Amino acid sequence: MALEHAILVSLMEQPGSGYELARRFDRSIGRFWTATHQQIYRVLRRMEADGWIAVELIAQDGRPDKKVYSAAEPGRRALSAWLREPVEPETVRHELAVKIRAAAFDDPAALVSEVERHREQHAALLARYLAGERRDFPDPAALDAREQLQHVVLRGGIEYERMTLAWLDDVLATLHRLANRPSNPGTS
Q1: Is 0.90 surpassed by the pTM of this model?
Q2: What residue ranges carry the coiled-coil annotation (predicted)?
């Protein structure tokens, strides 16, 4: 997926300025696709040049005009074509998992603080997702089709974080168990 597609999805949901779009990325789209504000602005300029988005200038008192972006017909067609392309399962590169395997050749206790740090970050992300769910989807039965699709993506993120926390708890328990063995065969 190119950043252009994520931006088009966001603009289809609601037109906005580059600043508003960047904030939306931070708040929602960033759950599954990250981009810096600089990347977003750079891609917006390219999408405007390619005719994928339309720009409306809004005059502001005492400030530069505000650019409000929306998806143009060529962008809508590009998004429609992209939606129909097959998606290959993602390859996972998980450095922490490799380090956990490497602990068999060193001191398993050496990884405990790093795994705990990862656990704290995933717990914080889960808390953010759950707060967002309460804020944005307080009544799931009343959601329209677009909101249902947004919610199902968020629920996927919630379940992923729950699964990751359960795995990290398992890793920590294993590391503690191995670290407390009288003789660790992986160390010399």
Answers
A1: no
A2: none
